[in-house]
TrEMBL record:
Signal sequence coordinates: 1-30
Protein name, entry field: MetA-pathway of phenol degradation
Keyword annotations from UniProtKB, A to Z: Signal
Length: 306
């Protein structure tokens, strides 16, 4: 065999071998996914706008939160009584609230209980247990995209308290309310409008109560707010000859308070000291004459969510 023929055969074999190798590599690439230098992306769950909202601190009994949460909330209130109301004085309230989310829309709420200590010489410095208030609330609108929630609800105040601190009277009292909250990013507006309907309209007065709060989530450690709370007597009682009423804590059943409005303006903040624990502080000042029972007051609470 001459050298030229041998060279042609060698080149033919090399070409066939190269084609086979290329075909094998192509088949492997077609059947095997391409490897990436980056780790696969894990989907990130969207954070609800409600994660940055806070429960009201001022007016804890009647500014019920629109958001459905499970929580235990110890509350302490130090209350300065206006000097023109039976000579003034002060009062301390120690309470524990409980809320339990049965579903993501329905919650059981226990909004009032506790011990009340009044320092006022004109009424012999009484102290005793508060009435117990229980009820439910249901979020009829919970629009995540629009950052809006609307929650009606009710409580019934059972007259289990001591008459010495103006509790345990009147056969009980209903509170029918509508709570709402709207978010604008980290700025939130919340409100509550309700009516207090006593079973015995001689022993207790009938109230309209309304609350507003604006808060801004600056960071978890400092969430400031401003709040307004007011109470208008729709139908006075016939229990005691006063021309004012007892704001959120006491329903005197005053006989000369029909049409009277009393209100406070408050400021404060919450601090999210743990992911499920909020510390709250509020200062309120009476701003509508007659001040009646309230000069000013301080409220401290802790929301422990579960």
């Amino acid at each position: 065999m001459d050298p030229q023929t041998h060279s042609r055969r060698w080149l033919r074999r090399l070409s066939l071998t190269s084609c086979a190798a290329l075909s094998f590599i192509s088949a492997l690439q077609a059947g095997t996914p391409a490897l990436s230098g980056k780790a696969p992306t894990v989907p990130v769950e969207a954070v609800s706008w409600k994660e940055h909202t806070i429960a009201p601190v001022a007016n804890p009994f009647f500014h019920e939160d629109a958001v459905i949460r499970s929580e235990i909330r110890p509350v302490f209130v130090y209350h300065n009584i206006d000097d023109e109301f039976l000579g003034g004085g002060n009062a301390q309230l120690y309470a524990m609230q409980i809320r339990y989310a049965i579903t993501d829309r329905l919650a059981f709420i226990a909004t009032q209980d506790g011990y009340f200590d009044i320092q006022n010489d004109a009424i012999a410095n009484p102290e005793g247990w508060m009435d117990l208030a229980l009820g439910f609330k249901y979020a009829v609108i919970d629009d995540e995209a629009s950052q809006f929630i609307l929650t009606p609800g009710f409580t019934f105040k059972i007259p289990t308290g001591d008459r010495e601190v103006f509790q345990g009277r009147g056969g009980g009292e209903w509170d029918l309310f509508i709570a709402a909250q709207k978010g604008f990013g980290d700025f939130h507006l919340s409100s509550n409008l309700g009516v207090r309907l006593p079973n015995n309209t001689d022993e207790n007065s009938t109230f309209l109560h309304y609350s507003m709060m604006a808060d801004y989530y600056t960071c978890r450690w400092f969430i400031p707010f401003v709040a307004f709370n007011a109470y208008t007597v729709l139908d006075d009682g016939n229990n005691i000859g006063l021309d004012t009423e007892g704001y959120d804590v006491i329903n005197f059943g005053s006989s000369e308070a029909n049409g009277v409005t009393q209100g406070t303006l408050g400021v404060g903040f919450r601090s999210r000291i743990l992911n499920n624990v909020d510390l709250g502080f509020a200062y309120e000042k009476a701003i509508i004459e007659p001040h009646g029972l309230t000069e000013d007051r301080f409220t401290v609470d802790v929301c422990i969510r579960f």
